[in-house]
Write a structure and sequence with these properties.
Length: 264
Amino acid sequence: QQQPASQLTAVAQPNQTVDTSRVPPIPKAAAQLPSPLQSDATPQRFREWRHEWSDYATMVDLASLPQTKQLIQLRISLTSDMRRVLEHKLDVAPDSIVEVDTVLEKLQTHVKSINNEALRRKAFSKCQQMEGETFDDFWIRLKLLSQEVDLCKIRNQTCIDEWTKHGILMGIRDEELTQKLVEMDASATLRDVLEKCRSHESTKSASSALRDTAKTCAVSQYKKDKKAAHKEKSGNTPSTSAPPALSDKCDCCGGRTHGKKPCW
């Protein structure tokens, strides 16, 4: 059936343009500058700050900005003391056209130079698992300390893994786990060592939980048995015993007539 002209639906032509002025703009994701980097920052703090800076640069598409504006954004992320260090010690003037990555490398070198390398190596070699500390918590501390020192000058990953395995072996507290690590094949990777440590800790925690459960059940059963025995004993023996009734029968004649008088 033919519909009235007033009810026909208008169909857009293929070459018809869409009015984009009515389309709401897509909101941009909010990006926050990293906390300002201080002039006395440790290597670990610089590493965290650089990750924050990298995330910020990605969110705002920093690479699309001119070089001067990129450096302005970088200087905003530094404290006033660190900006003075950047200008007077690292020779990066405010109007410099040095690439941002080059400036970041200069900052990293400066942070490492103000922290004694020997002391950082000593902290890594003396890292010990504390009492009650889980293996993962110990591993995180050891990993962070290893990143603050140049374990291998040539940055060979195999060399770094070997030093890290040595740090784990010397730092763990569990003697049984130490023996297991010593017995591992020399070709075992760092991943193998980590899996061995986590598996041992998991098994030990499960065994401890089972022992605690069995101990709790045993104590509970002992209390129940003791309570039952006490109840049974209390039921057989009267709590208050009445004194025996006095008899007026004479022990000699068996008579009851003379009462308390002497027997004839």
